[in-house]
UniProtKB/TrEMBL annotation, chain A:
GO terms for biological process: Golgi vesicle transport. This is Trafficking protein particle complex subunit. GO terms for cellular component: Golgi apparatus; TRAPP complex. The lineage of its organism: Eukaryota, Viridiplantae, Streptophyta, Embryophyta, Tracheophyta. It is found in: Golgi apparatus, cis-Golgi network.
UniProtKB/TrEMBL annotation, chain B:
Residues 11-20 have a biased composition (Low complexity). It holds the Pfam family Sybindin. It is found in: Endoplasmic reticulum; Golgi apparatus, cis-Golgi network. It comes from the Eukaryota. Keywords: Endoplasmic reticulum, ER-Golgi transport, Golgi apparatus, Transport. Belongs to the TRAPP small subunits family. Part of the multisubunit transport protein particle (TRAPP) complex. Residues 1-26 are annotated as: Disordered. This is Trafficking protein particle complex subunit. It comes from Zizania palustris (Northern wild rice). Its main location: endoplasmic reticulum.
Length: 187, 179
């Protein structure tokens, strides 16, 4: 039997997954955010809810990513960040992110997105100024990394909907959680 | 740490009871895959399927705990005695899933246990006839099936035992094609 396949490149991965119409995706996401705003009214609540939704998505998404991309365990956080930016974002959103602003210990970095399919056609009105429209992405990254035993904190630094020139999210690795033997030694 | 203490009784009694599938590999009866376990990183047995298992020594929960314990310890052990890596932690230090070298099968005179672990901690164990070749491609395919029919199923709560009919059906179909 041939050995398992080597990891695919970003473009090959993107070509191999099923794709959905970009406008459908953008408009569906917009409808979700709109509905959350109507239901919850508080912008902070909506941010939290988007993050939670992203977290739930991320915990499932990671298995699909690992299955389709054939990447093995990354040696350190730097490699992880590169894999997320080049393969992860490409596979699921069709855009590549760049990784910048590493801190001295290598535990914190920024993902910069020039192009973001979630926010096409979107403008934030004055009543929603505190809204992190793309907060679902921070939840997805947090959820996915937690399933590969990395606890992280993700915050938005730059947001084009607020007038900046790109989307930048800061990801900080707080803890690597190794596996523990889950059963108590009772038998 | 649990080691495979109860298992030695399994391998010594099995030849008298009845050995692994009567058809040797290559006859295409589809009777090769005998048992499949799927565990998540918390040790929860998400799936246990058996197609051909002549002997059961323990009740199912014990059996699953033992299997998980064995693999947990074996993975830790194989990573620690790896002669090709420079860095060696202490034996008691827990590992991250996917870290260290990954063992993928062990073989006895009556069966072969094939193993695949994803970096997200999903462990797939397939027990087959001892003369089967490398099953990594098979296990990868089963992992893909898991992603398609279980992970993407909105009615499935992650971390709970799998009860998806579509997954079971596709799994059975795929397993029939294995020699």
């Amino acid at each position: 039997m041939p050995p398992p396949a080597a990891p695919k490149s970003g473009d090959a991965l993107f070509a191999s997954v099923e794709r959905v119409n970009a406008e459908l995706f953008t408009l569906t996401y917009g409808a979700i955010v709109r509905q959350l705003l109507t239901d919850l009214e508080e912008v902070e609540e909506v941010n939290k809810q988007l993050d939670q939704m992203g977290y739930n998505i991320g915990t499932r998404l990671v298995d699909e990513f690992l299955a389709k991309s054939n990447v093995s365990r990354c040696a350190d956080f730097k490699e992880t960040a590169d894999v997320i930016a080049k393969l992860g974002f490409k596979m699921f959103l069709g855009v590549t992110a760049t990784v910048t602003n590493w801190d001295a210990e290598g535990t914190s970095c920024s993902f910069v997105l020039e192009d973001n399919p979630l926010v096409d056609f979107v403008e934030l009105p004055d009543t929603c100024q505190g809204l992190q429209y793309c907060n679902v992405l921070s939840g997805v990254i947090r959820g996915a990394l937690e399933m590969v035993s990395m606890k992280t904190e993700v915050t938005w630094v730059r947001d084009m909907l607020r007038g900046d020139d790109a989307y930048e999210m800061r990801v900080k690795l707080t803890k690597q959680v190794p596996e523990e033997y889950p059963y108590k030694d009772d038998d | 740490m649990q080691f495979f203490g109860g298992g030695s009784s399994l391998t010594s009694v099995a030849p008298e009871a009845s050995p692994a599938p009567s058809a040797p590999p290559g006859t295409g009866t589809g009777a090769n895959a005998q048992v499949l376990y799927v565990f998540n990183r918390g040790g929860v047995c998400l799936l246990y399927r058996e197609w051909h298992r002549p002997l059961r020594t323990l009740d199912p929960t014990q059996d699953q705990k033992l299997m998980f314990g064995l693999l947990f310890s074996l993975r830790s052990f194989t990573a620690k005695i790896d002669p090709t890596t420079a860095e060696k932690g202490n034996l008691g230090v827990p590992l991250l899933p996917g870290q260290g070298c990954s063992f993928y099968s062990f073989k006895t005179n009556t069966y072969k246990l094939n193993f695949l672990e994803s970096p997200s901690g999903i462990k797939l164990i397939l027990i087959t006839h001892p003369r089967t070749g490398d099953q990594r491609v098979t296990l990868k395919h089963i992992y893909n099936l898991y992603v398609e029919y279980v992970v993407k199923n909105p009615l499935y709560a992650p971390g709970t035992p799998i009860k998806c009919d579509l997954f079971n059906k596709h799994l059975d179909q795929y397993v029939k094609t294995l020699i």
